[in-house]
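#onboarding

Welcome to the new folks! Below is a worked example of what a typical request in this channel looks like: someone posts a single protein sequence, and someone else replies with the predicted structure as tokens. Don't worry about understanding the tokens yet, we'll cover that in week two.

Example request:
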Amino acid sequence: MDEREVTWTELRAQDRSGMAEVLAAFPDQCRAGLALGERLPLDGLAGFSRVVALGMGGSGIAGSLLGSLLTVEVAPVRDYALPPWVGEESLVVALSYSGDTEETLAAFAAARGRTRRLLAVTSGGELGRRCANWGIPWIEIPGGYQPRAALGYLLFPLLGLFRRLGVGPDPGEALAVLDERAAALAPGGAENEAQRLARHLAGRVPLVYGAGPTAPVAFRWKTQVNENAKAPAFWAELPELCHNEVVGWELAGRLLPHATVVFLRTPHDHPRVARRVAILGELLARRGLDWTEVWARGESGVAQLLSLLVLGDWVSYYLALLHRVDPTPVAVIAELKERLAG
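Example response:
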């Protein structure tokens, strides 16, 4: 059957674990997360000049997004070891949805000897137990989700906290935009933007490009295609990719003939970045390579980033349905963890 003749109602049967309901409830998750962050006492947390965000995978992306949203430096760490420069000036935040991420646990344990400003966001696990035993403040979030599907609980408590500390944005407009996006992109009615883009990407390898603040969103698109759609995807950042990746286009038609470049765009893009995208589109077309661009919604930086992020989440969901796979399970990751634990 031709993909364009398959109805989304038919394809929905692939979603045996109910990922669509989780995505549709994302705005509610964000509001609940925000309330958690607004209740946490601030004692002992103020006075930092840098945030060090420890986290891997679906938990770690929250730290990367903070780097685009806070007015202080944010250094994401995806490793067992802390950078040598972490000290008392740093607020170290451990992000582990399960609470059992071994890399994050190792780095957080090391942080106890470097700074007294420590915080964790987790549903419990070993990280929650350590925080309780060590007297470290932590934000307990609901369990039962895939980490990548719990981003509202991982990110928004920190947005609430950092707004109170004077270094974070007001997420009010972002919540309104997320409500609109949830209604517009969920299944039902006429084919929506995410469904159309998923059909375009079906059978292709997405190369997702962001710029500055949208770079971590491009990374999120890549990882969501990996985990939800069970497919390869890649990402890069403008303007850096203009100094290296573009040369790889010379053989892309032969080595990666089904690639599609997706540019993530906002009205706040640097004028020179916008000019680069226009030129890159011409260079891609001249080589017979496919490309498209998607635009953010909203006025504020946080609204624009999250509007692009949820679009990517829904695109990866619909791409999973087109690939005839259940978006939720991640069997390879589960096997890897089991073998590491053996």
